Amino acid sequence: MNVSDPRITRALVLAGAGAAGNAWELGLVAGLAAAGVDLTAADLVVGTSAGSTVAAQITSGTRPADLYAAVVAETPPAGPQPTRPPQASAQSFMDWSDTTIASSADAAEMRRRMGAAALEKDTPDDAGTTRWRATVAARLPRHDWPAQLVRLAAVDARTGEPVVLDRDSGVDLVDAVAASTSNGFAGTYGIGGQRLINGGYRRNENADLAAGYARVLVMSPFSGRTRHPLAWGMDLATQVDELRAGGSTVEVVFPDASAGDVFNARAMDPSTRPQAARGGYDQGRALAQQLAAFWG
Predict the structure, then answer these.
(1) Which of 20, 36, 70, 138 can pair with 276 through a Cys bridge, CB separation 3.0 to 4.6 Å?
(2) Hey, which bits of 6-90 come out as E strands?
(3) How far apart are the first and last CA of the chain?
(4) Is the peptide bond before 85 cis (omega within 30 degrees of 0)?
(5) Are 185 and 88 a contacting pair, CB within 8 Å?
(6) Residue 6's CB: how many other CB atoms inside 10 A?
(7) CB of 172 within 8 A of CB of 143?
(8) Which residues form the PNPLA domain (predicted)?
(9) Residue 140 in contact with residue 168, Cβ under 8 Å?
(10) Which residues of 53-86 are buried (b: 16+ CB within 10 A; e: fewer)?
(11) Of 123, 96, 114, 107, whose CA–CA distance to 190 is shortest?
């Protein structure tokens, strides 16, 4: 792909960060739209984990203002709420994944170990896949791939190989989002004979999937932080350097304090969503003038 091609200009990269990250990104997109910057018109949208849900939501034809309004109208659940998987706390997931990372020599081994551990948790009836698909389907305004190009990252649990799902993959949009958001702690996500886990195990933001696009805007709820050794090249800074070396102009947006101190183990907590969305909305409005010239 040639970045000088005028037909291929803008890519939006949406990283993962649980319930809070989804809300912040939706708020940011809505705030920018309210100030005249339409990110939904991107030529390519890249989604990872919670960012995959956002990618499907903002390309559905639903107005960003309506997506944002739905989040801020959510009533925070009373008392402790289960994450996915129901029996696991966010901290236990973090401990599990940290242990796997620490025991791996490189990113490829880490992905294989994550996949093997997830496969051990699968059940013969594959009930986890059925439940998670229903949950994801309920979050998406429409279930067919949009006309514009959307790429969603995942990992093959059996081989540890990275997987990129798009409209030409022969996979339903709901299944693609569900695979990209499946953290592996409760098992894998099944699509036919394939078993997939979270796209964040491929790379943290997967911004490299926008290689060749002239302008790349990256939303990183975890502010570019990584739990992987820098030598693995999973981190956002490495991805941005690669994009710029290929001729892309890159802008990155991190959450500001208005979203709350939630981009940590609390990111999976659904009660964080209204504040994270409001923070993203206000930040989007504040950044609109700066990003308007970049986005065009």
Answers:
(1) 20
(2) 10-14, 44-47
(3) 20
(4) yes
(5) yes
(6) 6
(7) yes
(8) 12-210
(9) no
(10) bbbbbbbbeeebeebbeebbeeeeeeeeeebbbe
(11) 123
Q: Are 260 and 275 in contact (CB under 8 A)?
A: yes
Residue in 196, 145, 189, 187 with CA at minimum distance from that of residue 166: 145
Q: Residue 96: its pLDDT value, please?
A: 78
Distance CA 198, CA 96 (A): 14
CA distance 215 to 11: 6
Per-residue tokens: 3: 């970045």
Q: How many CA atoms lie within 13 A of 267 on its CB side?
A: 21
Report the alpha-carbon distance of residue 23 to residue 221 in Å, rounded.
10
Q: How far is CA 68 from CA 46, 136, 290, in A?
A: 20, 18, 22
- Beta carbons within 10 angstroms of residue 19's beta carbon: 24
User: In whole angstroms, what is the distance from residue 241 CA to residue 256 CA?
Assistant: 23
Tell me how far apart the alpha carbons of residues 110 and 197 are, in angstroms, rounded to a whole number. Answer: 12
Phi-psi region at 177: left, alpha or beta (left = phi > 0; alpha = psi -120 to 50): alpha
CA angle, 99 then 208 then 200, to 5°: 25
pLDDT surpassing 60 at residue 45:
yes
Instruction: State pLDDT tens for residues 248-282.
Output: 999 999 999 998 888 887 888 889 999 999 999 99
Q: What's the mean pLDDT when you consider all of the chain?
A: 90
Cβ atoms within 10 Å, residue 213:
27
Q: Which two tokens stand for residue 72?
A: 């801020």
Pairing mode, strands 189-191 and 194-198? antiparallel
- What single letter denotes the amino acid at residue 81? Q
DSSP state of 78: S
Q: Which two tokens stand for residue 97?
A: 């994944």
Q: What are phi and psi of 14, to 5 degrees?
A: -115, 105
Which of helix, strand or coil describes residue 6? coil
Residue the block writes with tokens 């925070």: 76
Adjacent-strand bridge partners of 215: 10, 249
